[in-house]
Amino acid sequence: MASSAHSRGSVRTERQVPPARGNGGGNPPARSRSSSAKRSLRVSSDDDKNSGRVRVAVRVRPKTTEENDLDFTDCVELQPELRRLKLKKNNWSSESYRFDEVFTESASQRRVYEAVAKPVVESVLDGYNGTVMAYGQTGTGKTYTVGRLGKDDPSERGIMVRALEDIFANISPGSDIMAISYLQLYLETIQDLLAPEKTNIPVVEDPKTGEVSLPGSAIVQIKDLNQFLELLQVGEANRHAANTKLNTESSRSHAVLVVHINRSLEGKKENDASSLANVTNSELSSHHLPHLLKSKLLIVDLAGSERIDKSGIEGHMIEETKFINLSLTSLGKCINALAENSPYIPTRESKLTRLLRDSFGGTARTSLIVTVGPSARYYSETASTIMFGQRAMKVVNAVKLKEEVDYESLCRKLEYHVDYLTSETDRQQKLRENEKEQLEKKLKEKEAFLVETEKKISVKCEHLEKERNHLVLETQSLLKALNIQKSEKDKLSQEVGHLEISLKQAKQQELENLNYQKVLAETTQMYEKKIAQLIKQQEDESSRCADLEEQLSGMKNYPSGNKKSVQMQEKEIDELKGEILKLNEDAASTIQSLRARNNELSLEKELLNGELKTLKDKLLYEERKRRCLEDEIIILKNALNDDNAEYESKRPYKGDITTKSTLSLGGPANIPKSNRSRETISGQKDTISKIFEEVGLSNILALLKSEDLDVQIHAVKVVANLAAEDVNQERIVAEGGLDTLLLLLESSEDANIHRVTAGAIANLAMNSSNQGLIMGKGGARVLANIASKTEDPQTLRMIAGAIANLCGNEKLHVTLKKDGGLKALLGMVQCGHSDVIAQVARGFANFAKCESRDIILGHRKGRSLLIEDGVLNWMATSSATFSASTRRHIELAFCHLAQNEDNTLEIIRSGGIKELIRISRESSREDTRNLAMKALDSNPAFSTEIHAT
Ligand SMILES: Nc1ncnc2c1ncn2[C@@H]1O[C@H](COP(=O)(O)OP(=O)(O)OP(=O)(O)O)[C@@H](O)[C@H]1O
């Protein structure tokens, strides 16, 4: 249980602290100042309060019962407000003494503590040594004032208990240490009251510091007040036991309670690891070392001072009293010497003075309470006590703050610091290792990435090299194509030249014809004029003849005398008549020949006009074709330029793939070709075939999706041309070309795209295996939709051609009708363009023919699907107005419809019998005429109708 505060290694440094506070202390260490605020005692206002002067209070004990009974007069009169005590020697003589504090009989323990001891306790807490000592005659209340435990009544607690209470309230349990020793000095022997077996404890003085210690005495660390009370009780019991042994109730020993307080100035920071971590070497220099405040509080209950002669003691007690008096006397001497500033202080004369060396004339803050009894009986003791107190008041201590380097704390701090640095080093090391691992990992990843990238680059290079070669080849082929185009252009230019010459010639011829016609007209006019003259002449002659006949008849009625002259006249008349007749005949013959010639000239004129018209049409067509070719050449040049520009950036299909503008749509949709045109188209086909071979169908089809409209148009043209060839048709569809074309047709807003795409689809629709696919993918619907939106005859011609091709597949008829294909065909007639109408008529002929065949084979029944869409009415009423070839298609379609008896009613209603009759008689085709006749003959309803009308 015992621990030794002195076992700790420490170096104590002393510094005199200028008194700055009410209790005379220097700068206090960091601690609660709350207690300081309570220092409201009068003593604080004294001038000496800041000095190290021993402070002395006097307390008068209440009268005992005996003293009251014996009615002793008081020798003490107190003037508390003046802090004065009047000591009355007798009724007429008295002395007045001023003390630092004067306590009457009724002064409470608490007030006595706060005035006498508390400032010292606070000073001790601040790091100064302190002493509170009670001095007085036996039985005047020293033990009552100092050592009262107050177990039953805390208000009775004496200075010791209250001091410990205050100390507990102010120290930090974690960092501060408080321990006590409790001793008694008896017969110049120091005995440990906490360990009574320890006797004869020496008083050792440090020659350097003057620090007094009692080696061997128990120093018990106190944790709480209860523990202290228990120890105090133990000490009291031991002291009481010693007294009992000596057969005395009175305290014949000086009791000394030593309270050791060690306070760490940095106690609060010690547990803060982070602050320890920040300690640097420079901070460990001397003025940064952790300091420890070590202070000591001595609470001394002196044995009673009394005069041997008066107390009546004898024997051993005399001896005892002598010792007591010796010690008290030497204390008094020391105090006298100190009071008088004597150079020699007889400290060594007794153990008490040695023990109290620091309390009087030392560095401690000392407070003395002198206790007196009121009774005059003890006047001299009281006077002696008062004088002791008065002298003690003159003693001034050099109060010093004693700090020690707290090596234990420092050591702990350094250990923390070392721990922190070690763990920090480990942590840093670990971090570095992790970092190194991460870096190595990253390095490996980078290396792998580098290798991978290099591989990719080499593959890419190879690929680019291939692409470059491919592009070179493509460029070469495009250049070739361009050259071919150029030569084509030259040829076309020549052709145009020829045509222009032909045109000139035709114009010349036309001019000549015109002149001829003019001459003819003039001649005709002349002849007509002449005829008119002759007629007039004839009429004149006739009139003359009539006149003559009239004259003649008149003469016949004349008398016979004139008979001779009449005969003569009749002869003359006959001659004239003959002449007139001859003239009439001549005139009639001339008129007839003139009329014949006139007719011949008219026929000739008609022929010439027809020829001229044909020439004009041809010229117009060639002119249009020439313009188209020129456009194509310009586009090809641009495309070639684009390709050359793209070559360096390695974009293989950025450039346009061009082809001729004339679509080879095959079948009846084709424009008639001259021999030269056929050669040109053949050359174009070759070029397209080359492009097809070099670029590849998939790449060409991919260009259909190009964002460049020109590229799209030319790609569609190429596909359309390829689709004109039987061999390509299925392949284009198989590679998704049909889908793309349909999508393009549906989504594009561009009229050119509509035209060429419809042409491409028309060509694909020539192939019977493609027809089903086109229908299946909604092709008819798309075509019908575009047809409803456009008025461009070329586009309509392509669409009509495509649908016409689909009409030739009887399996698709129902779908075709459902998807609006038939209505679309009929609707396209509105454009009035002969080429379009020809395609429409072809479509209906195809449809009717296949339908008729289906019915004959028994695959279908019922009236024609064409009837439902109003086609029959159109055919029945319009065929005569179209060209011969268109008419033939319509006639054929009509005749096929007439074969189906289910259509009879509608044919009759539409007036179709008349048409059938006409066809049977006038159709240019024999088979059509036969079909018409067959229908008329075989269908009794027709015969009935014919007879009825
Ligand atoms: N101020 C006081 N109020 C009431 N009773 C007191 C007072 N002072 C002393 N007494 C009483 O007087 C008696 C003697 O007191 P105490 O034992 O404290 O005197 P003492 O000075 O210590 O004597 P000794 O020196 O012989 O030990 C006790 O019974 C104590 O209770």
TrEMBL record:
A Pfam cross-reference name: Kinesin
Annotated compartments: Cytoplasm, Cytoskeleton
GO biological process: microtubule-based movement; mitotic spindle assembly; spindle elongation
UniProt domain Kinesin motor: residue ranges: 53-395
UniProt xrefs under CDD domains: KISc
Gene3D superfamilies recorded: Kinesin motor domain, Leucine-rich Repeat Variant
Main subcellular location of this protein, as a coarse class: cytoplasm
A molecular function (GO) term: ATP binding
Region ranges (Disordered): 1-60
Annotated family: Belongs to the TRAFAC class myosin-kinesin ATPase superfamily. Kinesin family. Ungrouped subfamily.
Descriptive protein name: Kinesin-like protein
Native source species: Musa acuminata subsp. malaccensis
Taxon lineage: Eukaryota, Viridiplantae, Streptophyta, Embryophyta, Tracheophyta
